[in-house]
Write a structure and sequence with these properties.
By secondary structure, the chain is α/β, with parallel strands linked by helices. 49% of the residues lie in helices and 14% in strands. The termini are close together. The structure holds ligand 26Q.
Length: 820
């Protein structure tokens, strides 16, 4: 039973007026849009606070177990609309706004975009919090309060330009500082030890300390009792600088040098996605998050459960989102051994049973491996503990694999002068899970096969999910109310009820209404992108969409080359026709990822080339969306008809954009990779377009090296012609060789590696025929809409509520807090 905390329309109006007056000394008429937004947000915040209190009290009264979800990224998207929705108060606010002469849209627009994440991994964390709160489970998300989130992307002359993301300029209306939970995080220093009274004491001296100050963001569940929180830690200089160093005459060391790095810790989110960069500041960010979170978690534990640490696994779960917070393991050991004076074995038992690890990638370049030297210098005690963890692990490995040094080296925590964080996470946690069924299988049979052999019980796969609140109810209100009319409102709490839509896939009147809503959503998107970017899109063309981070393995290039081939056909054959299509791209490239930036440039050059061709531009348009982010996705998903999921099979651990498209009715064209495999199983061959090399074959190709892109280049004339255009000047006469690098990477093995490592050429033919089938099928409008309806009907399993229930049943075992 949700608590009674709804505000009436009149209370809302009254609150907005009085906040404007008291906070800013203005009447509504003089207030700026930002002030109005702030007054509204503050009103909603008041409304959240009684549930917030309930969570705190209930958790204490019931001595409930709590989850800490540690993630270096939380890509939450804007909060106001989501909070109104989850409080079930949208209608009252809309009515109040109408009487005040405001619009919901206008107020929502004033909220800055919180971009504290790169992409999939960070967005997943945000969907998980929504589901945790909705299911009334006690949980805290924990991350860094980056002053600058992911850069904003501008496209200038077809190329990406990065602009700093100053999202905190006007403050954050949702955050609640919790100064009394501020803690000190210690870096560097010397490890000291002593034996006294039969006990071993270890401590650090001369450390460089940084204060971690928490700011909490309320996470409102949908129609639920619980408000969870996302704790964001901000780095601050301790009020007194390092006195010892100061008195030893190291003035610079004491103030500027160390302090300047300290000041940077929560400054900016690293913009690399799926790549490890080996920077010391990144390691410091990770440990800063971990140490602050653990210190707080244990303080809270003691307050509720007392000083007996043995109960920890029953009262706390730490879920680590990829290896980025991996130092949870040695940090927990450090606290239990050095500060709580537990025997090593007992500390190890507690740690193993409290921590669980999710892996999000098999890409070698994304696996974190820290130089041992950097670890020793930055975190000397943590490094020592890693050595001991490693020693004990290797002993066991040696018993199991005597003499197999290569294998042991491969499984060790410390080897070849590097710290292998993934190995530590597997060996010293209670569970390692992949994020889709296929990804889980790959972890077992290849990436972590050796570990799977000796600890099979730890490995699992829990397929990712997305919250239907943000991705269907908030993003697509028109479809949501059509669903209510057809199958009742039960799907809003239990997404599996969407299956009840299946019979409507053959209902002519329903098909008509569904199609109309898709069209209106396309119009809405076209208006929106016109306002924001000046692009002109025709909603009567097919909207074919690929939006995600730019990465070679995601193969935006496959899509673009296919468009180039279509373009050439139109140019060659005056009678060539096709159903007009708008190809929509949105993607940010990591600033240092040259190849990815070239691909963005290429797409934009191609876009301009097509636009300049009188006949081609009637049939094809490429729209490159600037600064793709959560808010853009919310507008775009409901307007999409084709979802492009083209990753080289085995490379995309899951994908979650694929799920957002499906839930809004877009039909997938994709490889059998990540969660696409599950989408294809659910909807069947008639309702998606699968192409390309299967993951096992891809693995076999990588193992044997038996693939020659050049053969395909030589035999496929159409493709060859398109590829030649990358360097023959037909696209960029002013600089003919502009994209020669792209060309060479696809056809030649310049750096000793395999040419075309992501198999773009190999999969081209198969992609082309899937596209041909799709294009033909689209012409039968009713048959196409039926596919869209079936996609929506089958998307319920991708609700993150299902994902969270699986995590909870198999790993966390949290009890829901319910209002009695
Ligand atoms: C690591 C070290 C230093 C700097 C950056 C990083 C870093 C940052 C972000 C490494 C990886 C990431 C992001 C990874 C990511 O988003 N992975 C995606 O996770 C999704 C959720 O599970 C999956 O659906 C996607 O398949 C996967 O690519």
């Amino acid at each position: 039973m949700p608590l009674m905390n709804e505000y009436t329309k009149d209370q809302i109006k009254e609150s907005i007026h009085s906040k404007l007056l008291r906070h800013y000394g203005v009447e509504l008429e003089q207030a700026t849009p930002k002030q109005i937004y702030a007054a509204v947000a503050s009103t909603v915040r008041d409304q959240i606070m009684d549930k917030w209190l309930f969570e705190k009290q209930a958790r204490r009264d019931e001595k409930a177990k709590r989850l800490y979800y540690l993630s270096i990224e939380f890509l939450t998207g804007r909060w106001l609309h989501n909070n109104l929705l989850n409080l079930c108060s949208t209608k009252e606010y809309e009515e109040a706004f109408a009487e005040l002469g405001l619009t919901l849209r206008g107020v929502l627009h004033e909220e800055p975009e919180p971009a504290l994440g790169n992409g999939g991994l960070g967005r997943l964390a945000a969907c998980f919090l929504d589901s945790l709160a909705t299911l009334n489970l006690p949980a805290m998300g924990s991350t860094i309060r980056y002053e600058y989130g992911l850069f904003r992307q501008r496209i200038v002359d077809g190329q990406q330009v990065e602009v700093p993301d100053e999202w905190l300029t006007y403050g954050n209306a949702w955050e609640i500082p919790a100064y009394r939970d501020a803690v000190k995080v210690r870096f560097g220093g010397r490890v000291c030890e002593n034996w006294m009274g039969g006990k071993h004491y270890v401590w650090l001296e001369d450390t460089d300390d940084i204060m971690a100050v928490p700011y909490d963001l309320p996470i409102v569940g949908y129609d639920s009792d619980v408000v969870d929180r996302l704790r964001t830690w901000s780095a601050m200089l301790p009020d007194k600088f390092n006195l010892q160093k100061f008195s030893a005459g190291d003035y610079n060391g004491a103030s500027e040098e160390n302090d300047s790095i300290a000041a940077q810790i929560s400054k900016v989110l690293y913009p690399e996605d799926n790549t490890y960069n080996g920077k010391k500041l990144r390691l410091m960010q990770e440990y800063f998050l971990v140490s602050a979170t653990l210190q707080y978690a244990l303080k809270d534990y003691k307050r509720i459960h007392g000083n007996d640490m043995s109960l920890l696994p029953e009262k706390i779960a730490f879920q680590i989102n990829d290896t980025h917070p991996a130092t949870v393991i040695p940090e927990l050991m450090r606290i239990l051994v050095d500060e709580e004076h537990l025997p090593w074995e007992e500390a190890e038992r507690i740690t193993r049973n409290t921590v669980a690890y999710t892996n999000h990638t098999i890409m070698a370049e994304a696996l974190e491996k820290w130089p041992e030297k950097m670890m020793r210098e930055t975190l000397p005690r943590i490094y020592q503990i890693m050595q001991e963890l490693n020693r004990r692990l290797c002993q066991k490995l040696f018993d199991r694999f005597p003499g197999e040094w290569d294998r042991i080296g491969h499984m060790a925590i410390l080897a070849y002068d590097q710290v292998h964080t993934a190995n530590m996470c597997i060996a010293y946690s209670k569970a390692t899970n992949g994020v889709s069924q296929l990804h889980g299988d790959i972890l077992k049979r290849s990436t972590f096969a050796d570990y799977y052999k000796i600890m099979p019980e730890k490995f699992d796969a829990i397929t990712n999910g997305i919250t239907p609140r943000r991705w269907l109810m908030l993003a697509n209100p028109a479809l949501s109310s059509l669903l209510d009319d057809a199958i009742g409102t039960g799907w809003r709490k239990d997404a599996m009820e969407l299956e009840r839509l299946l019979p409507f896939a053959d209902d002519a009147a329903f098909i008509e209404r569904f199609a109309q809503i898709k069209h209106e959503n396309k119009e809405r998107f076209a208006r929106w992108i016109n306002r924001h970017q000046g692009l002109v899109l025709d909603p009567d063309t097919m909207f074919d969409v690929q939006v995600k981070r730019l990465h070679e393995y995601k193969r935006q290039l496959l899509n673009a080359l296919h468009i180039l081939v279509l373009f050439n056909r139109i140019c060659d054959d005056p009678n060539y026709t096709m159903a007009p299509r708008t190809f929509i791209f949105g993607a940010k490239a990591a600033p240092g990822y040259r190849r990815a930036k070239e691909i963005i440039h290429f797409i934009n050059v191609l876009s301009a080339k097509i636009a300049a061709h009188p006949r081609a531009s009637q049939m094809i348009k490429i729209a490159f969306l600037e600064n793709y982010n959560v808010s853009t996705a919310e507008m775009l998903m409901p307007a999409s008809e084709v979802s492009e999921q083209l990753s080289t099979a085995s490379k995309e651990a899951s994908g979650t954009g694929n799920m957002k498209f499906m839930m809004n009715g877009a039909v997938t064209i994709g490889t059998l990779d990540g969660a696409n495999v599950e989408i294809a199983d659910l909807v069947g061959d008639d309702n998606c377009y699968i192409f390309g090399t299967r993951s096992k074959e891809v693995e076999a190709i990588y193992a044997s090296g038996a693939y020659r892109a050049l053969d395909i280049y030589e035999t496929n004339a159409e493709l060859r012609r398109a590829l030649n255009m990358l360097f023959d000047g037909s696209l960029t006469p002013e600089n003919p060789k502009m994209f020669e690098g792209l060309f060479r990477a696809l056809v030649f093995s310049d750096n000793g590696g395999m040419a075309d490592p992501y198999l773009v050429l190999k999969d081209f033919g198969s992609y082309q025929s899937a596209q041909r089938r799709l294009g033909n099928d689209y012409l039968d409008r009713n048959a196409w809409v039926k596919k869209e309806i079936i996609n929506v009907a089958k998307s319920g399993v991708f609700s993150s509520d299902r994902t969270i229930k699986e995590y909870n049943d198999r790993i966390w075992h949290l009890q829901a807090l319910v209002q009695k």
